[in-house]
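Today's session is about reading a structure prediction critically. Students often jump straight to the picture, but the first step is always the sequence itself: look for stretches that repeat, for charged clusters, for runs of hydrophobic residues. Only then move on to the predicted structure, which in these notes is written as discrete structure tokens rather than atom positions. Here is the chain we will use throughout the hour.
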Amino acid sequence: MKLSSRSLLAGVALSALLGARPAAAQDPTPPLPPTVPTPVPSPSIDVAQPAPAPTVGGDTVGRILAIVGDSIITNYQLDEDLLRVQVQAGRLPPEGPQLDALRRQLLDARVNELILLQAAQRDTTLKVEESEINSRVEQEIQQRQANFPSQAAFQQALQAQGLTFSEFRDMLAADLKKQQLIQGYIQKVQRDRKPPNVTEEQIREFFEAQKPQLGKRPATVTFDQIVVAPQPSDSAKAAARAIADTVLKKLRAGEDFATLAKRYSDDPSNKDKGGDLGWFRRGQMVQAFEDAAYALRPGEVSGIVETPFGYHIIKLDKIRGAERQARHILIRPVLAPDDTVRARERAEEVAAKLKDGSVPLDTLIRRYNDPTEQQTHVGPFPTDRLPKPYDEHLADVAAGQVVGPFRLTEDDDRPKYAVVKVQAVTAAGEYTLSDPDIHEQVREQVQRNALMDEVIQELRSRTYVDYRLK
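Below is the predicted structure for this chain, in token form.
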């Protein structure tokens, strides 16, 4: 069972606090990040969310609104940004000072984006992985296609904008390359340069400006957990190892990997696909499996790799940058009913030791926690979003309370049991700077903004910028 253990604002209002453009339902002119520009995706019309063009008072013929170095920004691009604000906010301000200010704000964001992009392009240490771009393009296309009833409807929407599918794909790829370059440059600046000092007044001003977008702070719970899983007997492990040895001999004799995976593998998620795991990166698999997979070259087959899941045989199919595509055959030791009973007894023992304080929490985690369940510390986590069965067992708890053991799954033939130590419970209310986590997040964001202000001002001083917005 995996739970997100991000900070208090995770999944609630973190986007507003971190300077992303807020959902401006109340304010038709939402504030943009003060220094870091919002990348504007291509193509020019988001076919996933068609909407009528706003009345912006611009010409139908492209008009240059700003020159930045050797690049230009046209009224078409500004119209795109205004359209997104209209879709997001539901309306635009009427013609007048408010709309003029919004146009200037959006144009400034475009200028800053170009300045950063040009700086990133000059930095020869920044590289863009084509394989990663291609992967992200495919994901983006799939997400946009999902908004249409059929592939044909998606193609028709593109044609209505004067685009072929190939042109649409190329525009997405070009935009993602730009975004990746800018992000890489910003990350490098933040890594290499010390951010300026900021005052409590600056922190407070930023927080108060973002506070209307944060909404209410949900009730949260913070806890540590130990997940106890049944362990197979030595004889069961030996039997599984013998089967894995047999399969490996068949592979080395030339039998087909996918065919053997369909016949022998105990991984139901990919057995019928010949053991195909798809693409993965480091950090997505357990350590022993990952180390073995990354040591292979395409076409190679590993020896027998033992993990907490059982015994694996791995075949590496392809390499794409930092990603790997592999197949595996998993042989899992058979669990006996007694193994499940013993797991429950171990979980009860853990709960007793936690309650009487005879053994430190960290020691119990190292000794008993299932190694496939690496998330032992969770929270603060909104109580109204706890998944089953946590929602039932943590519905009304107090700090310091030990809960469990309780079974994590009801229909699994390999049941796991959770023992939870509640560390903190926070009632719903307003976000405040008196919360140390909130204060630290705000301080870090204000520092990042101040650093980017410095960097952009330095770059502007060395870049030709000519505004022509009237």
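Discussion point for the tutorial: The longest helix spans residues 165-192.
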